[in-house]
Amino acid sequence: MSVLPIRLFGDPVLRMKAQPVTVFDKELRTLVKDLTDTMVDAPGAGLAAPQLGVSLRVFTYRVNGELGHLVNPDLTLTDEEQDGPEGCLSLPGLRYDCKRAHGVVARGFTMYGDPVVVEGTELLARCVQHETDHLDGIIFIDRLDPEQREAALRAIREAEWAGEAPLQVKDSPHSTFGRAL
Prior knowledge:
Layout: H1 26-41, E1 46-48, E2 58-63, E3 66-77, E4 81-88, E5 91-101, E6 103-109, E7 115-121, H2 122-135, H3 146-158
């Protein structure tokens, strides 16, 4: 089991657009396993590769007992919205209501390069949207209304973990691939 440190808000990798996966090899399978182990240990509903310092379009999820992953996701969202609490492993202890699409159809690939479709509503839809946002350099507080966002930023400044030095890419066992230059 490889439980790795999760990058915290303020780490530049969380604001970069992740690169598409082009090689489906053992390194990718190791990354998916590390993402899964770290997410389950945290515990969290999802974890994206940038949260481990790897700038690749990969995330894992565990919602309602369903464990999975998605590589190079492409989302189609429903028009119906939901509003509900959301948190993030990169912002420990913080939760805010966030608007999201009620349903999602996510097309992508497995770690073996096989096409896959993940379809869901409510919590699964929220999770898939949240993790895909991470792959685009978006953090859920970016989606809050201005008043809530200001409250979130204030809470971040006051958080016990605020100001911790971000990990360097060399600190990750995945430092040889997915590095954003």
